[in-house]
Amino acid sequence: MTPAARVAAAITVLDDILTDRTAEKALSDWGRNSRFAGSKDRAALRDLVFDALRKRGSCAALGGSLTGRGLMIGLFASDGGDPAAMFTGEGHAPDALTDDEAAHLAANPGISDHDAVDLPAWLWPVWQADLGDAAVAAAETLRHRAPLYLRVNQRRGTVKDAIAALAAENITVSAHPTQEGCLQVDTNPRRVKLSEAFESGLVEVQDAASQIAVATMDVPKGAQVLDYCAGGGGKALAIADQFDCAVTAHDVATQRTKDIEPRADRAGVQIDVVTTDVLTAIYDVVIADAPCSGSGTWRRNPEEKWSFTPDKLSNFNALQGDVIVDAASYVKSGGTLYYMTCSVFSNENDAVITRFTENHPEWTAQDTLRLMPSDTSDGFFLCKLTKSE
Ligand SMILES: C[S@@+](CC[C@H](N)C(=O)[O-])C[C@H]1O[C@@H](n2cnc3c(N)ncnc32)[C@H](O)[C@@H]1O
Questions:
Q1: At what angle do helices 99-107 and 68-78 cross, to 10 degrees?
Q2: Three-state secondary structure call for residue 329
Q3: CATH number for the domain formed by residue range(s) 220-387
Q4: Which EC number(s) are documented for this chain (predicted)?
Q5: Which of 33, 38, 160, 365 is most buried, by the most CB atoms less than 10 A from its CB?
Q6: Which residues contact 291 (CB under 8 A, 6 or more apart)?
Q7: Is the dihedral angle over the CA atoms 66, 70, 73, 77 positive or is it negative?
Q8: Do residues 67 and 61 make contact, with C-beta atoms less than 8 angstroms apart?
Q9: Would you list the DSSP string of 90-140?
Q10: pTM of the full structure
Q11: What is the pLDDT of residues 219-268, one digit of tens each?
Q12: Ligand 1 nearest-atom number relative to CA 322
């Protein structure tokens, strides 16, 4: 496909997304109906669609409409390109710019503050209040693609081994600036999950923020650790790899845990996956990686940024209040609870901790880790709480 034909395809896919489909569904439907497209076309299309979704507000404002076409015109204009060069109507290119579209671009109308940072109008004041001086830089980060990070499984080899194994498959990586064992993928990220280094468990895909969070945890030798909201087991796997402890994984949605055993086998670690009925208060360390807005990771899931609402925020908040209480009930006296989210909103973080400690005086909040979305990680929040003896 020519670059212009890819833009035309992106317009179709974006129109689908703006109607009622998720980006993944719209892309896979397009792929099924476009057998002529090669893997490079599909990858380029995906990048165009996600780039436009991350910058939906500013692209729609620049392009003159919240449509697939408006977004793609805006994307080219925002990158300093000339949309008229791409929108020619020739071959499989999108139709030439209309007079109205050309006039809108020429007028270069100003864009609102919230569109400039690509956040929904209602959210921008909340974001500023919560993030303060970090608000603009964090919002700007979410407008760009996220790096892919790998965690080297210590049980399977060293960082040097991982770098060499990946290089043998033309995947080059660089060391994270602060987190040991964390590698940023510089070339061929799409090959990682097909690589021998991944298949053999030498590396696992995991954002730097989660790796940093696990590295800050205190897990005594021989401790019983419960990952109460284990999902696919990202934190549980990292803990099992890095600490000498017994790890149990649980999730209210049991189907989410189905990959934990194969992932643990690949990584060479042991994780016991259990259901709620067998849990008791025997754990030295419990992790509550609570369901949340995911606002610290929205560059990976930009649709969620635009579909987020005040109602969703308060629903998450209610759920988080329940999850922290339930998770805490499995910690033994003198034990530790780590509450964490990948959100940057105080409502999902500090407010949950404050309410919990006010209602449960046997618990004391200790250290807090707070990461903003940046060049070196997604946004993340972790609070260590200890239970009195
Ligand atoms: C942020 S995700 C966990 C991600 C996972 N820890 C990881 O590192 O890959 C939150 C998880 O909490 C689970 N969850 C939601 N409500 C829960 C509850 N009441 N009890 C336990 N788990 C719950 C969800 O099913 C979801 O898998």
A1: 40
A2: coil
A3: 3.40.50.150
A4: 2.1.1.176
A5: 365
A6: 229, 316, 319, 320, 323
A7: negative
A8: no
A9: STTSPPPPPHHHHHHHHH-----HHHHTT--TTHHHHHHHHHGGGHHHHHH
A10: 0.95
A11: 999 999 999 999 999 999 999 999 999 999 999 999 999 999 999 999 99
A12: 19
| Ligand 1 mean position, distance from CA 108 (Å) | 45
Query: Is 82 among the annotated ligand-binding positions?
Result: no
Sorted by where each begins, the domain ranges of the chain are 3-112, 149-205, 220-387
What would the pLDDT profile of 30-39 be if each residue is shown by its tens digit?
999 998 999 9
Q: Residue 325: which pLDDT band, with cuts at 50, 70 and 90?
A: very high
Q: Is 342 a catalytic residue?
A: yes
Cα 361 to ligand 1 centre (Å): 25
Residues with CB under 6 A from ligand 1: 228-235, 251-253, 256, 289, 291, 319, 322-323, 326
CATH ID of 149-205, from 3.90.950.10, 3.30.70.1170, 1.10.760.10, 1.10.10.10: 3.30.70.1170
Greatest pairwise CA separation for the chain in angstroms: 75
Q: Ligand 1 atom closest to Cα of 231?
A: 27
Ligand 1 atom closest to 291 (CA):
10
Catalytic annotation, pick one of 59, 229, 292, 342: 342
Nearest CA owner, ligand 1 atom 9:
234
**C-alpha of residue 354 to centroid of ligand 1, in Å:** 21
pLDDT of residue 108: 82
Ligand 1 center from residue 368 Cα (angstroms)? 20
Distance in angstroms (rounded) separating the CA atoms of residues 382 and 165: 33
227: annotated binding-site residue? no
Query: Which ligand 1 atom lies nearest to the CA of residue 292?
Result: 1
> Whose alpha carbon is nearest atom 1 of ligand 1?
291
